[in-house]
Design goal:
Helix content: 25-40%
CATH superfamily: P-loop containing nucleotide triphosphate hydrolases
Number of strands: 12
CATH class: Alpha Beta
Number of domains: 1
Structural class: alpha/beta
Strand order of the largest sheet: 5-6-2-7-1-8-9-12
Largest sheet: 8 strands, mixed
Order of helices and strands: HHEHEHEEEEHEHEHEEEHEHH
Strand content: 15-25%
Number of helices: 10
Oligomer: single chain
CATH architecture: 3-Layer(aba) Sandwich
C-alpha cells in the first residue's frame, strides 16, 4: 500500500469517528407503521433489559421507542448496513464479498439478509433451511467458511415461493431477525438491505445499532443521483456513511489485459470527493465470479480490491 493510500484511509477513519461522536438529539424522520412479525418464527426469545450488542456510539443514535430488543444470547460488536439507491448494482455480491474478506481475516462474521422479497444470500453460499431453533430463538445457518446467515428463504417451506407481504410485516420480520435469532458471538454483522429508501432501510436505521453504511453503486451517469439518495437518507437518520463500493467498475480483456470500461468511465471518485467519503473498492466484472455465485461458493472469490475497505472496518 502506498503512502498516499494509507493517508486516505487515515483521513476516512478520522471523518467517520468524528461523525460517530457528533450525535444529534433528533426525533426520527417518520414514525414507522405498526410492525408485525413473520408467522412461525420464534417470537419467544427473552427480551433483554440490558443491551448486549452494538457500540455505545451506535446505540446513542437510536430512539429507544423504536429500538429492537436484543437477544441475550447474541453479542454483536459491529453492525454494517449495505445499501444502494437502485437495484441491479450487485449489492448482495458486495455484502458477501465484504463478509468473506473479514471472515478470512479471522473475525466472526454474520449476514442478515434483510432483502425479504428478493433474498439471494443463501443461494450464494449454498445454505438451505429450514432453520432450527429452541425456546430461546432461531439458529442461523452456517456457511462453509463460517459465516452465519439468516434469510427469509431459510424459513420458507418452498425457497421459490414469493414473499407477498406489506411493509409492516416485512419491517417486523427484519426486527425479528435481530431479536429472535441466536447469533452468538459476532464481530461484524453485515445487513444486506433491499435497494432504495423504503421500509426496510428505515426500520434498520431506526431499530438496530448501525455503526454505518456502505453504499454500493456502478459506473453510470446516474451514479451521483443514486448515491446521494442513500447518502442523504443516512444523513437524515444520523447514520454515518463508511464509504462507497463501485461494482462492475471494469473488465480485464483476457487476451491483451487491457481494462475495459463496459458501463462507462468511473465517476465514483468525484462523487466520493464531493461527499467527503472514501471509496472502499472498485470491483471488476469477472465471469468466474458469476459462476462461483451460481455454484454457491462465493467465498472462494478473492477480491483484494476491498482490502482498503477492510482496514477501515477494522478500525471502527
Amino acid at each position: 500500500m502506498t503512502e498516499e493510500q494509507q493517508k486516505k484511509i487515515d483521513e476516512a477513519i478520522e471523518r467517520l469517528k468524528a461523525k460517530q461522536q457528533s450525535v444529534e438529539e433528533e426525533q426520527p424522520v417518520n414514525k414507522p407503521h405498526e410492525e408485525q412479525g413473520v408467522p412461525g418464527m420464534g417470537g419467544s426469545a427473552p427480551k433483554a433489559k440490558e443491551h448486549h450488542s452494538g457500540t455505545e456510539a451506535a446505540r446513542s443514535r437510536i430512539n429507544e421507542e423504536f429500538a429492537a430488543d436484543d437477544n441475550p444470547f447474541s453479542h454483536i460488536k459491529h453492525v454494517i448496513g449495505v445499501v444502494s439507491g437502485k437495484g441491479g448494482v450487485g449489492k448482495s455480491f458486495v455484502t458477501a464479498a465484504m463478509a468473506n474478506m473479514m471472515a478470512k481475516k479471522g473475525y466472526r462474521v454474520a449476514i442478515m439478509d434483510a432483502d425479504i422479497t428478493g433474498p439471494s444470500i443463501p443461494k450464494m453460499y449454498d445454505v438451505h433451511g429450514p432453520a432450527m431453533g429452541n425456546e430461546n430463538g432461531t439458529f442461523p445457518e452456517t456457511a462453509r467458511n463460517g459465516v452465519e446467515i439468516m434469510s427469509i428463504n431459510l424459513l420458507l417451506q418452498d425457497e421459490e415461493a414469493p414473499v407477498i407481504w406489506r411493509g409492516p410485516v416485512i419491517a417486523g420480520t427484519v426486527k425479528q431477525f435481530w431479536t429472535d435469532v441466536l447469533w452468538g458471538e459476532i464481530d461484524y454483522m453485515f445487513v444486506d438491505m433491499p435497494p432504495g429508501t423504503g421500509d426496510v432501510p428505515l426500520t434498520v436505521f431506526q431499530s438496530l445499532p448501525i455503526d454505518g453504511i456502505v453504499i454500493v453503486t456502478s459506473p453510470q451517469d446516474l451514479v451521483k443521483l443514486i448515491v446521494k439518495k442513500a447518502y442523504n437518507m443516512a444523513g437524515m437518520m444520523n447514520v454515518p456513511v463508511i464509504g462507497l463500493v463501485e461494482n462492475y467498475s471494469y473488465m480485464t480483456c483476457p487476451d491483451c489485459g487491457k481494462k475495459l470500461s463496459v458501463f462507462g468511465e468511473s465517476k465514483v471518485d468525484e462523487v466520493a470527493e464531493e461527499l467527503e467519503i472514501p471509496v472502499l473498492g472498485k470491483l471488476p466484472i469477472n465471469p468466474e465470479f458469476a459462476e462461483k455465485v451460481d455454484w454457491g461458493v462465493c467465498y472462494e472469490i478473492d477480491l483484494p480490491e476491498l482490502e482498503e475497505g477492510a482496514k477501515i472496518l477494522e478500525q471502527l
